[in-house]
Design a protein that fits this description.
The protein has about 230 residues and is of the alpha/beta class. It contains nine helices and eight strands.
Length: about 230
């Protein structure tokens, strides 16, 4: 299925979770831009690369990375993914107007405008802070664990999926989360107006509900749009 689905939403809205579920359900590739960029800036091989270390400082403080850097990295990766002839689900990308202006023409060329679907998961700021503050990530399988959803008897040091160690990302402390929310409002939300001007309809979904309920609505929305 040659389709590009872009899932937007503030930190903690469940973009990555929903993108994973959708990719598995529809046989698509989930391109998690945030995780991919995190792997690039934290790669030990790049410790002596001043340009990448500068981007790492931005990343770890919650500030959106330099648009030129992100656009270059993402466009190169997207072009490689397209050769597999799989559709793609993006979680949160393109994040800025610069990135959108650089990436959207490439996506339109690869997938066709009618096969690009923007989705926005809506949650409150308080929900974003609560979810991110309670989030742990598995070092091995990269599963995301929200401590508030687990039993009090659960050992929060181990992943319930594979048993590997869990860790807290540098992005997930309350101060950084608030910076990320500010960045989202000031630098990502303007992309929505740009998409509308390019002729896209923005599909909003309530992200406050349980992940399975959000996914049910999300999947039905995507299938309806693809079949109409």
């Amino acid at each position: 299925m040659m389709v590009a689905i872009i899932i937007y939403g503030p930190p903690g809205s469940g973009k990555g979770t929903q993108a994973n579920l959708l990719a598995r359900s529809l046989n698509l590739i989930h391109f998690d831009t945030g995780k991919y960029l995190e792997s690039v800036v934290h790669d030990p091989k790049n410790l002596n690369n001043k340009k990448i270390q500068k981007e790492r400082a931005f990343f770890d403080s919650g500030i959106i990375l330099t648009p030129e850097f992100v656009t270059e990295v993402v466009k190169n990766k997207v072009t490689k993914l397209a050769k597999s002839e799989f559709g793609v689900v993006f979680s949160g990308s393109p994040r800025t107007l610069y990135e959108a202006n650089g990436l959207m023409p490439t996506l339109e060329c690869i997938y066709g405008k009618k096969n690009i679907i923007p989705i926005i998961l809506k949650i409150k700021d308080a929900t974003a802070v609560k979810r991110n503050s309670a989030r742990l990530v598995c070092k091995l399988c990269e599963s995301t664990i929200i401590k508030t959803l687990l039993s009090n008897k659960f050992n929060h040091k181990m992943c319930p999926v594979c048993g590997a160690d869990l860790y807290k990302r540098t992005l997930d402390n309350p101060k950084v989360i608030k910076i990320r929310l500010k960045e989202y409002r000031e630098r990502t939300e303007p992309v929505f107006d740009m998409l509308i001007k390019r002729g896209y309809k923005l599909n909003e979904i309530d992200g406050e509900k349980k992940p399975e309920d959000v996914f049910r609505v999300l999947k039905n929305k995507v299938l309806d749009l693809l079949h109409n």
